[in-house]
Amino acid sequence: MLDSAMKQPDLTRLLCAGRVHEAMGLGNRVFAASLARALSGPVIWLITQQSRERLCPQGLVRFFDPARLILVSPPDRRALLQSMEEALRSGAAPLVTGETGRAPDLTESRRLQLAAAGGGRGLCLIADAMTNAAETRWHCSPRPGTETAQTWDLVKNKKGALGTWSLA
Amino acid sequence: MPDEPALPCLRPQGRRPPPPTPRRAAAPRAQAGVSARTRRILAITFPHLAAEAQLRREGRRGLEIPFAITGAVKNALRLISVNPAALRAGLLPGMSLADARAACPEVATRPQSPDRHEAHLQALVRWAERFSPIVGRDREDTLVLDITGCAHLFGGEAAMAREVSDACAALGLTAQTGIADTRGGAWALAHMSPGIAAAGHTRAALEDLPISALRLNEDQVEELSAVGLSTIGLVANGPRGQIARRFGVETLKRLDQALGAEPEPISPARAEPRFAARLSLPEPVGLTRDVMAGLENLLERVTADLARAHRGARHLRLTAARVDSRDETAEIRLARPNRDPMRLRALFERKMGEMDAGFGIEALHLVALETETLKPTQARRESEGDRLADLISRLGNRIGFENVTRLLPNESHIPERAFTTAAAAWSEPESFPASLPRPISLFAPEPLGHLPGRPPEQFRWRGETLHLLSATGPERIAPEWWWDDPEWRSGPRDYWRVATREGPRLWLFQTHRPRPLWWIQGQFA
What we know:
The complex is a heterodimer of chains A (168) and B (525).
Chain A: H1 11-14, E1 20-24, H2 28-38, E2 43-47, E3 54-55, H3 57-60, E4 69-72, H4 77-90, E5 95-102, H5 106-116, E6 122-128, E7 136-142, E8 150-157, E9 163-167
Parallel strand pairs in A: 1-6, 1-7, 2-4, 2-5, 5-6
Antiparallel strand pairs in A: 7-8, 8-9
Helix pairs in contact in A: 4-5
Chain B: H1 27-31, E1 41-45, H2 49-57, E2 67-73, E3 76-82, H3 84-88, H4 97-103, E4 108-111, H5 114-128, E5 135-138, E6 142-146, H6 157-170, E7 176-180, H7 183-192, E8 195-196, H8 202-206, H9 218-226, H10 232-237, H11 240-247, H12 249-259, E9 276-285, H13 288-308, E10 311-322, E11 327-338, H14 341-352, E12 361-373, H15 384-399, E13 404-409, E14 419-423, E15 441-449, E16 458-461, E17 464-477, E18 493-500, E19 505-511, E20 517-523
Helix pairs in contact in B: 7-12, 11-12, 13-14
């Protein structure tokens, strides 16, 4: 597979609006933050209350201004999916990021896709892949042996080619 | 009182001597007949308010069996308020519940609810505005009305007082009224001997009343009674200097206020405008569709009121009265003030599923509990801010407003305190300044153990063995001495940004007390 050079991919084109995408791997939060940088307007980020890993705004500031961030903490995964649907349907934010843990199953992801049809853009940060209705799935990992470099692998794409991007 | 030789002669010997010449310039005015400046004050007190209000709420006004409201006072359940029947049975407010039960076993009681009591008083203030535009509250349960120039509209003061009592009786409340030239005088009459002191005769009317009519606290009353100063007349005729010295100027101030020597205006407790509407249904309804239709009607009325007052609702409550006299409520909150009936309706629609109609709903009541100023704006297209506020309202009503938050910068070097979390509905976004490199994920520090090396060459974290590739640091962060955080008792920390051969980039730190220990607190990617 051809490396698309050391160039930042055009995330807004690859992760089209009106669909829900998925990102997994250690670097998926950085991936979501990079996507937020490429967009403008509010960013809704859903993390369940059980999650131990909090977002640190001083770390996000490298990517986008945390003033754009609305943090939603639903009590459990089910409420997270419901709230994510709500946020996608409203179309108030160009990016809705949900940390679902386990990937949404076929029904759940189908529901998210329907909610996003209004124009929102969803991104599920997942722990493991599953067969579902996600538009694209990315595997994001820090490149071993480097200090900041990342490798973004597009491992599923319903309407286009797969690819690998390396970021310095 | 042997230490004070002057006081015993204060005791009356038969008839009181005529009052000494007034010492203050203001006093003659109170004594002189009706002057153009004389004010007339009506005080209304409700001796059984809490008990009677509760009975009224339960639809049993005028209950003839003893009834009392109880509350915890000084670690004991005591009677707070009793109805007239209980009073006749010998129960008094302040009695302990156990004593009351012993004296009168058939007494029925309810626990007190201070919020309701307050709401009830506010409702009475609103109600009293029909008699005079200036209505204030004095102490716990007394309304004071400035009725100067109002009484003739009701056929004179006596007729007015009668009308107040009758109207209260119709509400199921016992009211006592007093009318005098001064606020203190009216208060005293209402509490001690309901009646009217003719203009200019307040002093004469008050002279024989006990000093507890002076709005003094219990200790002051007790001290004054202990030396025989048991009526207002005795205090008024006593030597002012000595009274002030022994009992405090507060005593004299209350006396002067009652007698009119010291002005005491009424600050109108203007009732907050209330945005509420009620709908009684001819037949009980049970279908969501019917309730929503009723709700639309109420929303239109409430939002029209809000629009007139240039306000928007932040918190609304819909109460549905069921035929089995149980109330079902639904509440919504809003991220920003709003008075658009369709938006509010959409938020209520979701809550409808949680309401149980039981055997049917016969009345609906909608009230805006919190409102904020909302200036009228020109009709315009829905902006992005509106849509975001709508979304915050919807999410907040679903999972709680405290769970929809924004991160705000905070002045601190401690990583976990360098930002605060604030409810998005009640905060404005704030930009973050650029900072030293910080991880994107932060978690509670996880110990790695006492490892050699700075930073350690190899460590185990979450079941994985990681090898050091490169490290940047140390960045020393000292605890804030003004903030005792148990997490930071181990002293300053040396933070390192660590890249590992396996991939994870982590934020490690080392504490030095009691001996060097490594921890992980964050992850860069």
